[in-house]
Amino acid sequence: MVEPLKKSGKIQRRGPVMLVIMDGVGFGKYKDGDAVASSMTKNLDALYASCSWTKLKAHGTAVGLPSDADMGNSEVGHNAMGCGRVFAQGAKLVSNAITSGDMFKGATWQKLIANVKNNNSTLHFIGLLSDGNVHSHIDHLKAMVSEAKKEGVKRVRVHALLDGRDVGEMSALEYFDPFAEYLKELSADGTFDAAIASGGGRMVITMDRYNADWDMVKRGWETHVLGEGRMFDSTHEAIETLRKETGAIDQDLPPFVIGKDGKAIGTIEDGDSVILYNFRGDRAIELSRAFDEENFTEFDRKRWPKVEYAGMMEYDGDLHIPHQYLVSPPAIDRVMAEYLCASGVKQFSISETQKFGHVTYFFNGNRSGKFDEKLEEYVEIPSDKVPFEERPWMKCAEITDRVIAEIESGKWDFIKLNFPNGDMVGHTGVFEAVVCSMEAMDLQIGRLREAIEKAGGVMVVTADHGNADDMYEHDKKGEVKRKENGEPKAKTSHSLNPVPCIVYDPEYNGEYSKTLNEGLGISSIPATCINLLGFVPPEDYDKSIINMN
């Protein structure tokens, strides 16, 4: 339990403080490929022209990642925006655990290794094969495979998902070919047998999130566990063939199974051990449930092998998913929502399915549920189950409809919402769709501005990381990389760019300086919102964007 916040006696508005998170919207480094700057955003432009605003860091060390070469992501971004401090995050935690050897000394690793050795069975790894460092890192996988051989494991199978989202859209062979060769070299002495057993695009199989499309997980189960599906002799052949046949980018390639003499080389059987080596939680929970739950009803598993299963991390700390994991998540305590509840502040949180967990679970420090049932309400608007480039406006209008109704109700002191458009449509790589998504979102920001002005509240507009601001791949000289047909190569990953923080305060009365602090990260959002709500932020929270007069 935390103590109530102290009142500052400085700011008191008629209406609520509202935090608007434009997911995946930053300031582009390059003119070419910046879909945010290319969009007609009349309302955002008006806010920039008339309000105090600044740029915030949303990647790398500013959000707890290992280096400033690491892209921010929605999970660590919402952690930072919710807790007001910077905690070491997924990739960094895992890297530290591997480097120190703590992972391999841990009880879970030792249990899975012993299981395989005692049963003379197979150790399986499932996860995203790239160095994107958002969901996984290929170096983590290589370290674990190497350690498994060192510890006497005889047989390893890797079920590798194609990325094309946090890395180049057609970069899969840059990872699969060298990794296949790496496994071949490890197996050359005849004491060890390691190979890639199955695969498919990350947006087609296995990596669904927030229960949006369980068929993705079902396809992944059939591919990785049962060995069902189209069979190829090698991953290289599978990727080349499926690219030619479908014209799809890596993240959208159909599933495939590697076989020999018509038989899958890596089905998951009783007595095996399985590690999901993705460290990010949102797209790992559903597959973990399929392995862990005895009375599982989301789809027909056909066969539920009795295995020792572990995730890289605990993906949901309250529901304890999975039951076993290799690296403990950061212990994030004393988050803003908890302080606000202790102070009697009524809070409303909303997004559509794709980002609902971000404004709740991740914003609350990887914690499910509410701090106070009487003071908080969470609303999820169901996302469309269609490709985002086909509905780039997503549910931003429906979110706004509900938020305006809640503003007008006068029930809430603090409202937070997430518009997923810039991130989810940004990941498709379809520039025109991203522009459409930005313009649709901008219309809703205009509606929110009017509602806040009428209510006498404050609107803080920010983002968790960049994406839509960097839609083309560029070379070291800053020139756009192009395909053989001359079209720009799409970039589907997040960017390293800063994000905005705009303070729209129509009833401002000189309580704080209009000149905002610069050089801060998105972890400064909580102290800022607490200031605007009329309280003094906790002493160890990162510095507020505003300076009180």
Q: How does this model look, in words?
A:
The model has no long low-confidence stretch (mean pLDDT 96). The chain has helices at 42-50, 74-83, 90-100, 102-105, 107-119, 138-150, 172-186, 214-224, 235-246, 285-292, 336-342, 353-362, 396-409, 421-424, 431-455, 525-532, and strands at 6-7, 17-22, 52-56, 123-128, 155-162, 193-201, 231-232, 256-260, 263-264, 273-276, 308-313, 325-327, 347-352, 376-381, 414-419, 458-462, 499-504, 535-536. Strands 4, 5, 6, 7, 8, 9, 10, 11 and 12 form a 9-stranded mixed beta sheet that branches. Strands 3-17-16-2-15-13-14 form a 7-stranded mixed beta sheet, with helices on both faces. Helix 6 links the parallel strand 4 and strand 5. It starts with 5 loop residues before the first strand and ends in a 13-residue tail after the last strand. The chain is an alpha/beta fold.
Topology:
Blueprint: E1 6-7, E2 17-22, H1 42-50, E3 52-56, H2 74-83, H3 90-100, H4 102-105, H5 107-119, E4 123-128, H6 138-150, E5 155-162, H7 172-186, E6 193-201, H8 214-224, E7 231-232, H9 235-246, E8 256-260, E9 263-264, E10 273-276, H10 285-292, E11 308-313, E12 325-327, H11 336-342, E13 347-352, H12 353-362, E14 376-381, H13 396-409, E15 414-419, H14 421-424, H15 431-455, E16 458-462, E17 499-504, H16 525-532, E18 535-536
Helix pairs in contact: 2-12, 13-15
